[in-house]
Amino acid sequence: MENKQRGQFGSSFGFIMAAVGSAVGLGNLWGFPYKMGKGGGFAFLFLYLFFVVTVGFIVMLGELAIGRKAKMDAVGSYKSIDKKAGFIGGFGVFAAFVILSFYSVLGGWVLKYAITFIGEMFGAGFGGAAGADYFVAFITGTVEPIIWFAIFLGLSAFIVLAGVEKGIEKYSKIMMPALFVMLIVIIIRSVTLPGAVEGLKFMFKPDFSVFSSFDSTVAVAGTALAQMFFSLSLGMGAMLTYGSYLGKDENLQRSALIIPILDTIIAILAGCAIMPAVFAFGLDPSAGPGLMFITLKEVFASMPMGSLFGFLFFTLVFFAAITSSISLLEVICAYFIDSRKMQRKNVTAMAALAVFILGIPVALSQGMLSGVRPILGMDILDSFDFIAEYTLMPLGALMMCLFVGWKWGSKIVTDEVASSGHGFALKGYFSFMVKYVTPLFVAFVLYNSCISPIIKYFAGGGQ
What we know:
Layout: H1 12-23, H2 26-38, H3 42-70, H4 74-81, H5 86-121, H6 132-139, H7 144-161, H8 164-191, H9 197-204, H10 214-231, H11 238-243, H12 252-280, H13 290-301, H14 306-338, H15 344-363, H16 380-408, H17 411-418, H18 427-459
Helix pairs in contact: 1-8, 1-12, 1-14, 2-10, 2-12, 3-4, 3-10, 3-12, 3-17, 3-18, 4-5, 5-7, 5-14, 5-15, 5-16, 7-8, 7-14, 7-15, 8-12, 8-14, 9-12, 10-18, 13-14, 14-15, 16-18
């Protein structure tokens, strides 16, 4: 029987904003630009868009439909269809828990920088925001990273505590339009810098030189597919959980198209905000994660009114991060509310506390615990990322495709999509892709990002 206390989205617009908010996060505003930089610009973008069509839409539609059909959490939704399939949702719940523990640490970094730029604007003397030394001194600290991690996680819990409509939907409807406006402002400033056109050429001028060898092609394709996976919040139970809060009149086919489109547009806009500025100042577009926390600091420090634009930029990144973190926390809370029949206020506090405890080693992973290398020689933060993004998420999505495409039959999804009365024009495309094509691409992510590194690590004697 449906739990009347679990909540429901109040409007289609509110759901779209919440779902896009879940998808748009650090993966778009941080990961996409620097991975595109490493992947050769346009070639990476081309592959990314290809995978959105062949994998993103299919997995997202499947998760939304299963969630709405069951009206339960990730585990309960799969169990309602097949009692032996609950483990698929379990991958998502566990992935959300692991991701949130390190995602909130990164969110704390972002919040710290936004506040720092406010100090710079008013001459508060917070130590300056430019340069690698400032960043390294902060993330290797003992107390400060934990404090900002706790603040970010606490804000996420505050929103989730208010419920689906009055919390998640309400704040997503405010933050996502605000994010878009701020992003446009940053783009206007970035593309008007002298030499910025080179950054746009890097992004949009056709160049497939990275496909000159098989190894580089596989590497870029694997990175683009993994990035698309994480960016769209697939395989972590978020879309399935949000789908469970939808009414039967929601057009799932339209939603599964709009969400990836908006998410991709924002990812491209993030590139347009970052790459022109990077090229304008002659910096390295493939600078890795430091592109946002180090390289862009140098850009803002050298730019007229740089403190203002730095504040705007990190505020929009904060909005993106927290709308994603609340979806992750909701996945965990929904499981205990639906499957364990617990009250939201108790679950939210319990889940936030558990995430905080697990995240403390992550917050210290760049400092006092930097020598701890639990998985394949990676530090704690990268190990958590490896477990969730490169293992649990593709495993969950692969199992969903195999069960829907081969065990249950795609009819279980297509009937749910069509039940809203809006029709399902892409029914044939979904049925073919979920059975024959999408599982192969998801398996490629799993092999390229998880299995292959394990093989190489042990083949190299653990080095």
